[in-house]
Design a protein that fits this description.
Blueprint lengths: L1 E5 L2 E6 L2 E4 H4 L8 H6 L1 H9 L23 E5 L3 H6 L9 E4 L5 E2 L2 E6 L4 E2 L2 E7 L15 E8 L2 E2 H4 L17 E8 L11 E6 L2 E7 L7 H9 L9 E3 L21 E6 L3 E9 L1
Parallel strand pairs: 4-15, 6-12, 7-17
Antiparallel strand pairs: 1-2, 1-12, 2-3, 4-5, 8-11, 9-10, 9-15, 10-12, 13-14, 13-16, 16-17
C-alpha cells in the first residue's frame, strides 16, 4: 500500500490515481493523516478492499507523508563511510537528535538557503504506525506504517555552535526536512532493509549506497528509541545518511541558489528541491 498527502489530506495512491481517504471512506477515516496513523491497522484493512474505481481526485502529492508528527527522531553517523569521512570512530550506539516538525515539507519544493553553508544528506525515513514502547528488535517492523525518502538538510555553522555542538537547530530551518513522494508499507519491498539510496546535485551523483549498509538497521533503532521514550503513530525516524556529504569534501562544497537536489530511494521514488536565496 502507498499513501501520500494532498493539501494536508490523507490520500491513497493506486496506480495513477490519488484517492482522498475521507471522501472514499464516506467519513469513516479522517482527512487528517495523524488520525489515520492512529487507526493504521483498521485503515489498512479498509484500503485492501478499495477498488481503483472508487478514486476521488487524480492530482499528485504536495506535502509531507506525515505532516504533523509529535516526534521526529534523527540518527547521526549511521553509515561507516559517513563516519569515516567525518574522521570519527564508528559509533557503538546510535547518535540521536531531532529535527523539529516545522522543518517538514513535501517532495517537490524550493529550498530557501539561510546561508552559504547548507549541506545535503539523503536518508531513508521510517513512519510509525503503532505506539511502540520497549519493543524488541525482532518485533520492530510490525510497528512500522511505512518507509519514505527524506533529506536531512543541514546548516553546518549553526549545527556546530556552542561549547558542545548540537545538531537540531542547524537541521530544522523551514524546508530542511522534505519527505515523500509516497509512504510505502514494508510488505511492498522484497527486503525493506536493503534499498538503493542516491543523492544528485545538478545531475551529479554525490551519494550512492544501500540501506543495508546502516550500522544500526531500522529494527535496532526502533528497539533502542522505544526503550527510552514511547514512539507514537505518525512519528518519523530519519535513519542517517551515507558518505558523500559536501561538508566532508576537499574543498568543502555547499548548496548555492540555482542548484537542484534530487534524492532517490528504490521502490519509493524521488524528492526534488530547487535552491533559492533566503
Amino acid at each position: 500500500m502507498r499513501t501520500t498527502t494532498r493539501s494536508g489530506r490523507m490520500c491513497l495512491v493506486t496506480g495513477e490515481a490519488v484517492i482522498d481517504v475521507e471522501q472514499a471512506s464516506a467519513g469513516r477515516f479522517s482527512a487528517d493523516p495523524l488520525a489515520v496513523f492512529e487507526e493504521w491497522d483498521a485503515f489498512r484493512s479498509w484500503a485492501a478492499k478499495l477498488e481503483p474505481t472508487d478514486a476521488h481526485g487524480s492530482t499528485g502529492p504536495d506535502g509531507s507523508v506525515s505532516p504533523t508528527p509529535r516526534q521526529v527522531f534523527a540518527i547521526g553517523l549511521n553509515y561507516r563511510g559517513h563516519a569515516q569521512e567525518a574522521s570519527l570512530a564508528t559509533p557503538e550506539s546510535p547518535s540521536v537528535f531531532t529535527k523539529f516538525a516545522t522543518a517538514l515539507t513535501g517532495p517537490d519544493t524550493q529550498l530557501r538557503l539561510p546561508s552559504g553553508r547548507v549541506d545535503w544528506e539523503a536518508e531513508l525515513v521510517v513512519v510509525m504506525g503503532r505506539r511502540a514502547e520497549h519493543v524488541a528488535a525482532g518485533d520492530a517492523w510490525s510497528y512500522v506504517a511505512g518507509l519514505t525518502a527524506g533529506q536531512d538538510y543541514s546548516e553546518r555553522e549553526v549545527q556546530s555552535v556552542g561549547p558542545v555542538p548540537q545538531f537540531s537547530l542547524g537541521k530544522s530551518f523551514p524546508g530542511f526536512a522534505p519527505t515523500g513522494p509516497v509512504l510505502v508499507t514494508p510488505d511492498e519491498f522484497a527486503d525493506p532493509d536493503d534499498l538503493a539510496i542516491e543523492c544528485l546535485v545538478n545531475g551529479e551523483s554525490v551519494q550512492k549506497s544501500r540501506t543495508s549498509s546502516m550500522i544500526f538497521p531500522v529494527a535496532e533503532l526502533i528497539a533502542g528509541l522505544s526503550a527510552v521514550c514511547p514512539m507514537l503513530p505518525g512519528d518519523l525516524i530519519f535513519t542517517g545518511t551515507p558518505a558523500g556529504v559536501g561538508h566532508a569534501r576537499t574543498p568543502q562544497r555547499y548548496l548555492r541558489p540555482g542548484d537542484e537536489v534530487i534524492t532517490r530511494i528504490e521502490g519509493i521514488g524521488q524528492l526534488r528541491q530547487t535552491c533559492v536565496a533566503a
